Amino acid sequence: MMDIKKRILEGDRLALAKLITMAENNRPEATEVIKEMYYRTGNAYLIGITGLPGAGKSTLTAKLAKAYSKMGKKIGIVACDPTSPYTGGAILGDRIRMQELFTDPNIFIRSMGSRGHLGGLSKGTRAAIRAMDIFGMDYIFIETVGVGQSEVEIAGTADTTVMVLAPGLGDDIQAMKAGIMEIGDIFVVNKADREGAEKTSREIEAMLDLNERSSWRPRVILTVAQDNKGIEDVLYAIDEHMRYLKDSGIFDNKRRENIKNELLELLTQNIMAEIMSGLSKEDLMGIVDKVAKRELDPYSASTDIIKQTRIGGCR
């Protein structure tokens, strides 16, 4: 592990890729490296890119990353793609859509399958972010799978969340009223050369008028990312939101809240691992059968399972 740490400090991108792969595969060596180099984290600014499928998230991310690269910034991109619940495979389409970035020495892209993880992010997303932060990235983009309401998890990870919409996607604005609209710090109406872009923009503005709980008023920006139109406006809005967070003192509080979310997620994973390590498949299926036959209720079953482990013995 000393070798991979040394190579990462030297800026070896292959070492970074290897560390992320190990973390995604739950290799304990990756955890040890991240633990030992954790002191190097906290410097990258995290930008979440989310929204409905087909809105152009990948194109927008690519154009923003390219613009930051031209400024001499180091950029990391974690692009989460959906995993098939049947084959376990992921399309990893962002590797195709972001081809133009692969030759840029300032940009590192990692596509990750969601592996059944809800919330729009991959299970290995946080570890990948830590690895890129350790590597010295200035900005890290986290692009979600784009599946609707479950995208809310991005708000517990990113510093600035960009919600990407496009005209002609049906009743997208109305469908997003139930909470997902609240996570956007910046709204981008992409593919603005299409009919209905101005109408979509007005609908977003009208909905934002109803939200008086925050001192930050999200900007609504029209873009045609494919043609680089509006990209400068999005860059300005990201910088504006970053300055707002830091000047208001919200930035540190938000980072602390995000760390709390990460700790709770790790606790959940560790507790589940501990429980499952003390429960054989036969025992589990035996309990499942009892619940299925109505001989046992699921609430009592879950309590019994916990009692059978070391966790249940810690009183």
UniProtKB/TrEMBL annotation:
Boundaries of every AAA+ ATPase domain copy: 43-248
Pfam families: MeaB (PF03308)
Claim: Hydrolase is one of the keywords in the record: yes
Entry keywords, A to Z: Chaperone, GTP-binding, Hydrolase, Nucleotide-binding
A Gene Ontology molecular function term of the record: GTPase activity
InterPro entries: AAA+_ATPase, GTPase/Isobutyryl-CoA_mutase, GTPase_ArgK, P-loop_NTPase
This protein's record includes keyword Nucleotide-binding: yes
Family: Belongs to the SIMIBI class G3E GTPase family. ArgK/MeaB subfamily.
Protein name from the UniProt record: Methylmalonyl Co-A mutase-associated GTPase MeaB
Organism encoding this protein: Calorimonas adulescens
